[in-house]
Amino acid sequence: MARQEAGFLLTWAFALGVMSSMASAAIVEHVFNVENVSVRKLCHDRVITAVNGALPGPTIQVSEGDTLVVYIFNKSPYNVTIHWHGVFQLLSGWADGPNYITQCPIRPGHSYIQKFTITKQEGTLWWHAHVSLLRATVYGALIILPKSGCYPFPTPHKEFPIILGEWWNGNVIDMQNQAVALGVPPNNSDAYTINGRPGDLYPCSKKHTYKLKVVHGKTYMLRIINAALNNQLFFKIANHKFTVVAVDASYTNPYVTDVAVLAPGQTVDVLLTTDRTPGAYYMAARPYASAQNAPPPGSTATTGILIYDKLPYTSPIMPLLPALNDTPTAYKFSSSLTSLVGSPNWMPVPTKVDERMFVTIGLSLSSCGPTATCKVIPNVPNLRLSANMNNVSFQSPTRLSLLQAHYFNVKGIYTPDFPDHPPLKFDYTNPANSNSTALTFAPRSTRVKQVKYNATVEIVFQDTTIIGAENHPMHLHGYNFYVVGQGFGNFDPVKDRKKFNLFNPVIRNTIGVPAGGWAAIRFQANNPGVWILHCHLDNHLTMGLATAIVVENGPTLSSTLPPPPLDLPLC
Ligand SMILES: [Cu+2]
User: Fold this and answer.
1) Measured CA angle at 165 (ends 160, 171), to 5 deg
2) N or C, which end of the chain is more exposed by having fewer CB within 10 Å?
3) Who's near 216: CB < 8 A, 6+ residues apart?
């Protein structure tokens, strides 16, 4: 090849490289000032901790392939971490955010830069504090647009985030500290919210109700996020059906429904066509409360108003919401979703399984800990209400994060012996066992599951009726998983396995395991690091319904976790 030609080719290749990186990979920077601000809600003045003074916090929008750099300044009086819920954090596990799992907390007055590239995923995710109850007010949407600019469905006229949340009148940190001291879960919230606002049905809230103005005859995309702490929520819009097209940033076959159910942590993208009689219609959300033997949460719905244009304002029509304990409606929604085969980033279900785990999840009693002030059972000192996986109630480390301990090979922080089966086989979903004192005690420890790079892991979560059955939304960091099966009662390895959907199971990062039932997931451990697997009900995470999956490095540089950033917060 002539020198001139080679030079020309090199220049051309260089130009192409620059162009493609310009087109496909922006660096998106944001500053998060986490600070205390005064707000007035439900007729009360309150000081909350929020990002950049806003509730919800800023909506972050990126395109797939972009690198997000977030400068977090903790100007609040509390320890803080920020988790990017559902983001794979491929080889960037140091930016995942869960407290004492991948980092120590950012102390008041300190800062941390979270930098990561968002690859092989698009859709609606979100970010939230992963420390104590702070996520009650420290949260916001993360929207990942397709690099191509095209959805696998007609482009909607406009898109809106609809973030469902939960609100307390009291200081959530004080409340949590009190609850931990007593060994009980914290109080139920005082309101539910849509985009930070309780809505018309709550006192002193009408003026600030969220309003969504729409034009007749268009199709809108609502990116619904359940940012509530402890409640699954039903969501409806009066007189309207909508089409689910994605959940947890993963495309689904279009599913037409008039009700969506979201567990804390989950997202649902729906297409809404404004083809009804012009008017005003409430969108409303209130709990799906599956817990038996627990005080029921508040039943007042949070509302927003869908308002058609060119219309004198009329009083909005209210949808008929399902009853709080409507398990059939919740199950119908979650079990009807399937993934959209061949859509962007879709991959077939791995059929060869390397690691099989059967994991009971549920409530228990554990020792109170050093404070010994627990009062969960009258006349029985030093016990607290806890939650566990395979009878291990997770004890968070305090000296070092799990990821640091793993990376630097520090002993004494965790043990890699989380069991693949519960210590005892019993009739997990028999209500007669719910008061069995022989079954209720779960020791606290920091036991994790370690797997080889690229292993295919299958986990069957089995709810128990100990103390009371409940739908637990299980969330895995660092991965999406296939929900290959779910059902009620005890998992039957022969019968139920035959019914697994290995063709187009829904792909999620959070699965609500049916109350008194089971759910089976699979994922391929192709992201080295330490990834917490936990119930996304905040009170259950605090009570120990968690473990972590340690994924070893692979053989190449591109399957090896890089060293931590220099500003990683230390304990
Ligand atoms: Cu739970």
Assistant:
1) 140
2) N
3) 274, 275, 278, 308, 309, 310
pLDDT in tens, 347-398: 999 999 999 999 999 999 998 876 667 877 766 678 899 999 999 999 999 9
Q: How would residue 438 be classed by pLDDT, with cut points 50, 70 and 90? A: confident
**Distance of alpha carbon 506 from alpha carbon 125, whole angstroms:** 16
Q: Side chain identity at 400, as an amino acid letter?
A: L
Q: How far is the CA of 203 from the centre of ligand 1 (A)?
A: 30
- State the residue for tokens 């699954």: 232
- In this predicted model, what pLDDT tens digit does every residue of 223-238 receive, in sequence order? 999 999 999 999 999 9
pTM of the model: 0.94
CA angle 38, 39, 40 (to 5 degrees): 135
Query: 111-138: per-residue pLDDT in tens?
Result: 999 999 999 999 999 999 998 899 999 9
Reported for 366-374, long-range contacts at CB under 8 A and 24+ positions apart, including other chains, are 366/393, 366/441, 366/442, 366/443, 366/444, 366/544, 367/443, 367/444, 368/183, 369/444, 371/180, 371/181, 373/181, 373/182, 373/183, 374/181, 374/182, 374/183, 374/184
- 3-class DSSP string for 492-508: CCCHHHHCCCCCCECEE
Compute the distance from residue 187 Cα to the ligand 1 centre, in Å. Answer: 16
Report the alpha-carbon distance of residue 115 to residue 113 in Å, rounded.
6
pLDDT of residue 17: 36
Q: Using alpha carbons, list the distances in angstroms from residue 462 to 326, 360, 531.
A: 20, 5, 20
Question: How far does residue 179's CA lie from ligand 1's centre (Å)?
Answer: 17
How much distance in Å is there from the Cα of 473 to the middle of ligand 1? 6
| Residue 302 alpha carbon to ligand 1 centre in Å | 23
With a cut of 70, say whether residue 569 has pLDDT above it. Answer: yes
Q: How far is the CA of 537 from the centre of ligand 1 (A)?
A: 5
Cβ-based neighbours of 486, under 8 Å, separated by 6 or more: 334, 335, 511, 513, 514, 517, 518, 519, 520
Neighbouring C-alpha atoms within 13 Å toward the C-beta of 490:
10
Distance between Cα 516 and ligand 1 center (Å): 12
Beta strands, E only, 294-334: 302-308
Please tell me the distance between residue 469's alpha carbon and the centre of ligand 1 in angstroms: 10
Helix (H, G, I), strand (E, B) or coil at 117: strand
- Other residues' Cβ atoms within 10 Å of the Cβ of residue 435: 13
- Residue pair 33/27 in contact (Cβ under 8 Å)? The answer is no
User: What spacing in Å lies between the alpha carbon of 564 and ligand 1's midpoint?
Assistant: 31
Backbone dihedral angles phi then psi of residue 179, each to the nearest 5 degrees: -60, -45
How far is residue 140's CA from residue 514's CA, in Å, rounded to a whole number?
27
What does the alpha-carbon distance between residue 51 and residue 73 come to, in Å, rounded to a whole number? Answer: 9
